[in-house]
Design goal:
This protein is mainly α. The protein is built from ten helices and no strands. Helix 1 crosses helix 4. The radius of gyration is 19 Å and the shape is elongated. It starts with a helix and ends in a 19-residue tail after the last helix.
Length: 207
């Protein structure tokens, strides 16, 4: 019985995050009303307040749900996994409301009084783990610091998606992500490992 209750509570939480993401994606933080989110989720206010304190808490949960959209789809490791993270992220950012809203809220959070770097730090740590694996496998050039590269990639992806959103509505985001790697890889990859890294856009369609 306890497991059934916990499963139901988890489904309710996920439903709320999904509904909130859809509304945040459509209307931004300021335009997203709790009533509209509850109607979209099909749950009561009591059910929401069991999981979240309010709209700000929901926004933080949506921001921090981004990795769950991307990483469970991947089976690669090391440097290829890092590349795949960005390719899947770029492709799904075109259509997935949780990812779209999470990115939008993370960028716009200052406008509604938040200063929460958690989502960026989580991406950095995940990417650093990929790079540390790459270093252990001999894929990185000598002297390349995994944390420095991870922080650069997080910042670069943030800027690329903003630029792509403005100039093409993110239609060209996957191609811009590949172009980023074409510029970055020669400086970080060991020469004998370069040809093994695939930048095929189809890798963004994993899962």
């Amino acid at each position: 019985m306890a497991r059934t209750t916990n499963d139901r509570a988890q489904r309710t939480r996920e439903c709320l995050i999904r509904a909130a993401a859809e509304v945040f994606d459509e209307s931004g933080y300021a335009g997203a009303g709790i009533t509209r989110i509850l109607e979209r989720a099909g749950v009561t206010a009591g059910a929401m307040y069991f999981h979240f304190k309010g709209k700000e808490d929901l926004a933080v949960a949506v921001m921090n749900a981004q990795q769950g959209v991307v990483e469970p789809r991947l089976t690669s490791h090391g440097l290829q996994r890092l590349v795949d993270i960005t390719l899947v992220w770029a492709r799904r950012l075109q259509t997935d409301p949780v990812l779209r809203a999470g990115v939008r809220l993370a960028v716009e959070q200052g406008s509604f009084g938040l200063q929460d770097a958690t989502t960026y730090v989580n991406w950095r740590d995940s990417m650093r783990e990929c790079l540390e694996g790459a270093a252990a496998d001999g894929e990185l050039r000598a002297g390349v610091d995994p944390r420095t590269v991870a922080e650069f990639v997080v910042g670069a992806c943030t800027g690329i998606q903003l630029y792509s959103q403005l100039v093409s509505g993110r239609v060209d985001l996957p191609e811009r992500t590949v172009a980023m790697w074409e510029l970055l890889l020669p400086g970080v990859v060991a020469p004998d490992a370069y040809d093994a890294i695939s930048l095929d856009l189809k890798r963004g369609e994993i899962g």
